[in-house]
Fold each of these.
Amino acid sequence: MQFAFTDEQEQLRSTVRRFLEDKSPPTEVRRLMETESGYDTEVWRQLSDELGLTAVHIPETFGGQGFSFAELAIIAEEMGRSLFCGPYFSSTVLGATAIMETASTAQKEELLPAIAAGERLVALAISEASGRWDADGITCKVRDGKLTGTKRFVVDGHIANLLIVVAREPAGEISFHAVSADSPGVARRRLEVIDPTRKLAQVDFDDAPATRLDADIDGEAALSRILDLAAVALANEMVGGAQWLLESAVEYAGLRTQFGRAIGSFQAIKHKCADLLLKVELAKSAAYYAADAAAANDPELPVLACIAKSAAADAYMRAARDCIQIHGGIGFTWDNDTHLWFKRAKSSEVLFGTPSLYRERMMTQIRDERVYA
Amino acid sequence: MNGSTPNSPESVRAEVRAWLAANWDPEADLVAWRNKLADAGWGMPVWPSDWYGRDLPQALAPVVDEEFARIDAVGVAKTGIRLLAGWTLLEHGSDAQKESYLRRVLTGEDVWCQLFSEPGSGSDLAGATTRADLDGDRWIVNGQKVWTTSAHHADYGLLLARTDWDVPKHQGLTYFVIDMRQPGVEVRPLRQMNGHASFNQVFFTDALVPSENLVSKVGNGWQVALTTLMYERRGISGSRALPRTDPPPGQIYAQEREETLTALEPYKWYPQRAGRVDLVEARAGNLGDDVDPELRQEVAKLLILSRTAEWTARRARAAQEQGRPQGPEGSLGKLAGSEIARQASRVHTLLAGADAMLAGADGPLDGLIAEILVSVPATSIAGGTDEIQRNIIAERVLGMPKEPRMDTGPFRDVKRN
């Protein structure tokens, strides 16, 4: 495991940060979160064409850049920091990763280049009305290339061109399917959400034509692995957002004066910030370590993903809560930016599963893998 | 030492290896051997060549250590705080003081203790009120120190005392070497809530310090104390390496073992105060879903804290090795350690259930769990409280404004205990 980023990775980080500071300031976040699509097509084009970010972890043979999951995680962290509004998480992180894990070579050749180019938007549809992300929660049925059922919590499902859908075969096993979003039998509805910077959709399938992704894999194991990778990417995104909140809280505490002194000089405030720094740094360590493990195909990934997701979710919510508290009344207003990150923290906390669920899963993993025994 | 010798790792290695080959003898007397080390400079090679060292750059010290370890050669005395005394005197002491004390620091013949903390000044170390008053060519010391490890067998103490009450508090302190074996010094063990007595209280009643034992100059005590504390933070003090479990034959090893066991005696509960996460790790794989879900959550939280803290420390080290500026991750270890210890204590309690009430032979793991439960509260206090750590992190790492001070005037007027 490496415990420091390479110079190239630091360079990537600063390039992405500069781009997002320019293209995704809070004013833009506020503008885009009120739109139906939720993103700016011109910024998306620059991000794909000029920076090549949509191609980063896709292998070169499929039109990608061939970098590892560690680079993807750095981009996710920076996007979390700036609260970037765009289908990057849905299409590049979730969609492309799912295809890479489940599609045959021929299918990858067909599907991935347009995703790498940012031209095709993919959404990954796993969860249903039960709000579960595990195999046992899958009730959507597929038979003879026709898919029926309802998916919920589909990130950017309302704008994707292609849906990757997890369904159950007649014999009971889990399989992955590509469904064109404009097919007959597909009905999409954007859900009302608490976090307008991350849009969710419900997608109803009624005998919709579906192409099975047919790499020779165990569907349930692939689902677990995809969710591990998703959790790791989300954890990195979350620590980026948590860091932004920490900086915002510290800055405000230095500016705001009460009782004749900066409120940041009160121990009640500075201790809160010191504790928050600790929580955020521990979560960063977990997120970075897990991203490295994902890049290295480390067999401990399932445990590390649980650690990263739960630590990052707790740190992000704590940062959001404390940042509002330190801002006081102004922190509860719409005009103050804190609530934008608070809402992302809240939606990320439960996306793919709550922190408690991940800790529970970690304990199960430890028992099954005899990690400490 | 030949000044023209190039200090390359290879030349240093060759030199120390040759010297050890010619001199090392496992049947030597411990003190005689260490005197030899002091004369040759191989005991503390990074010390100046005028004072028992060889002017070796710090980066080459591991080469010497490796050569000693290779043949199991015994080094100079490193237990307790004696090396803190050594470094402090090297930086601030007079030649006469270095002459008097440094050699016996290295041989281990003298035991040292640190007389900084007081009942009335814990976090606020510079608020010391133990006084030293000049009387002719000697100082008369009155007052009380506390949390003094090894005071009961110390020969000398590093004493921080107030010599001027009319200047701001940091400017009125002076640093002395005090002879602990005199009638005006009384050492009493301090019993802790876990039943051990690892520390002492030291009472001074007209104790005497000759003028030549003043270190640096009058009023400069805080600066000297900062030197001691800096070396303490660098981990120079108190080697807590366990004695060799299977020492090679030779009387020197027996003597070294005795010294180590005496020095380690006060620290035997330290692993327990850190929470003994290892005990939970050993059981974590057996806590299946038939176990209370709350317990499973708390165990998971502990393991997460412990592992992320370890990774954070490794990030700090990696950045340092690459020569990058240290990020915030380097300052958080102590605070993380407190949280780990508290969470471990919670988990041990949940795991033990009613047995958590039992201690000694009746308690879980032969009383070990009980010792953990009543030792953990020390972690967030010893070596700087969590609250002081948070102040330091907030002010130095996050750049937050300092608290307004109430203690900047003459010390005489400062409110105190």
Amino acid sequence: MARKPTETAAPAASANVSRDELLKYYRDMLLIRRFEEKAGQLYGMGLIGGFCHLYIGQEAVVVGLEATARDGDKRITSYRDHGHMLACGMEARGVMAELTGRIGGYSKGKGGSMHMFSREKHFYGGHGIVGAQVPLGAGLAFADKYKGNDNVTFTYFGDGASNQGQVYETYNMAELWALPVVFVIENNQYAMGTSMKRSTRSTTLYGRGEAFGIPGEQVDGMDVLAVKAAGEKAVAHCRAGNGPYILEMMTYRYRGHSMSDPAKYRTREEVQKMRDERDPIESVRNLLLTGKHASEDDLKSIDKEIKDIVNDSADFARESPEPPLDELWTDIYADDAPQKTAEDVNV
Amino acid sequence: MATEILMPALSPTMEEGTLAKWLVKEGDTVKSGDILAEIETDKATMEFEAVDEGTVGRLLVSEGTQGVKVNTPIAVLVADGESADAAPQGSAPQAAEPLAQPGQGEASKDETGEAPERAPAAAKSAVEQVSTPEPDESPDWPEGTTVRQMTVREALREAMAEEMERDETVFLMGEEVGEYQGAYKISQGLLDRFGPRRVVDTPISEMGFAGIGTGAAFGGLRPIVEFMTFNFAMQGMDHIINSAAKTLYMSGGQMGCPIVFRGPNGAAARVAAQHSQDYAAWYAAIPGLKVVQPYTAADAKGLLKTAIRDPNPVIFLENEILYGRSFDVPQMDDFTIPFGKARVARKGRDVTIISFGIGMAHALEAAEKLAGDGIDAEVLDLRTLRPIDYPAILKSVQKTNRVVTVEEGFPVGSIGNHLSAWIMENAFDWLDAPVINCTGKDVPMPYAANLERLALITADEVVEAVRKVTYR
């Protein structure tokens, strides 16, 4: 049922990929990279507080999977969520302003880096408790199945969350009830500072689904085309009513777990090697250049365009005011104000 | 254009640090991601990466400098081709003022230099509306309505069936709710009537199905999640508190969670410590939850229907011992009871006994005994613990000037503790005696029958407390 990744997946997939597609992946991944670098910078300046978990290095996972989603599909993830939001089309301004705790943020400044949502883009958070998003994601899929549509929910979690018991309670029920959920394990190999080797003897994470009858596979998560190809298969499986599917994305985060992580659990050389040899953005850049899909100048102008978006988001995030003080007391109960619960229910 | 590189904050609490080591020198070209320096924070030594690309024009702070304030310029980066001399020398425009996060320490003053005004005081708590001192004392159902004797069990079942009939998005999930017909037979017959799509048997996975239910509520359904008992809800507590109760707030109002978590709560009989606990005070402590603990069958029905329609997460605390007791229930097409409306179960003038749930049984029994001795007790059934009907409490205290609270839960951090504090703050001048809290004893529930009796609250203890506050 589960199988090993095919080494040749990427080149095979790249043969069929269009110029526009490659440019889109390049642009989307670069936006996340530059956005996160800027967030790191604003954190350093004290404009972003608390915890801030950067997605740098893992961009191909979310960009490749978003390429397989269609309107109505949902996504939910952990606290390392900025990339997921940008990839599903949420505005850089709203995300950055939430990081700075301003009224222009997606949660009016009340959620912060780890807690952002967009009903419009079907992004259901942004969850700060490791593993909690897994049953929540299955619940979103439960709602879609109940309503009788064929939407799919992408439920992202890490190798660290894979050791939470609720993941397996969820696997069991998701398969039992054939819920349309793609479980995406972003295996960046470190649960905060604890490497896979030091946390489990069962290091093939997708294989843990076999105990519940859930098919899955390991995917090169640094290769956006491989991610997309695997995602298409998983989504087709779920949409057809066959229940959940597990994708274990082998990926890597370049930065620390959060901003205050000195990263002494791995060597600088290990990080540098990944950056030099496996960078997901550089790979697509090379495909674009070697395939003569784009010139250096074309890419430079994309770089400029992205830089402008990110700088604009940072300006917005600095200028947007802090929430008015009466916001302290709003949004505690839905009946305080008109709210949209069940607006999209159509059973 | 020259860019200043500022001393970064590398942890949530860092205000200054030591520039331990430069890993670049003047004239080096750097690109985004290159490590510029090692910086010692209050927690650890961190590597500091470049964000922009360019050439290091000047290093402004030398290696080994201690106490470098966050946001002090430490180097200048120049664009390719630009001369390092173009870099400004040291003093930076925005560096003098530490850019601490607004709302912290010095920076907590707003732009006008005034200390920030306090948040509006009117809403001291989202559920405390003391501004309306007159309690709603309208009857729960119109006079002349036909009533029928019904058990609490039947009332709960009718409430769920009626709401499932009314709203297709309402469904029931939990352990043994379907084919087994309910561990306590609350859901008896619902599977036959509504089918397995809407009456969902779960495996024994409280954390998992508390989370799946919460996710389904985010997704637009109205789940009723039954815990076989609330003792097992502790396994799913993270989803009740962190996922269900807080998400509306954390999302700036975007993500409602209309869900009911219900099941028996509190001591049954002879099931010992792990299966005998009243969680009322735990849940009532959480902003974002609504908490209901009915005593009568009519309240069980009317409040459960309200709970299912409520757009917020509702904790509905039932009681196994009460399931089989019968009460009058009005025969109406659509009978609901609003949250936050207490019920005067017995009118009196000498003392107010405030209770809820099964505590009401002890309170009423005590009131009868006291009446025989000429003490006329008023008994107030709170029915909901979030929101609490403070106006009703205030009105009764102003009449009787004496209060005893009754509940089954542990004494420390009890609902009674909270009520005592509230009454002291808001009605101190009306009190003629200290408020006494009657609670369960401060021990895990014992198994032995005689010890169990000692651990539980009794009507006699309530009588004794009333004698103390009435000095009789």
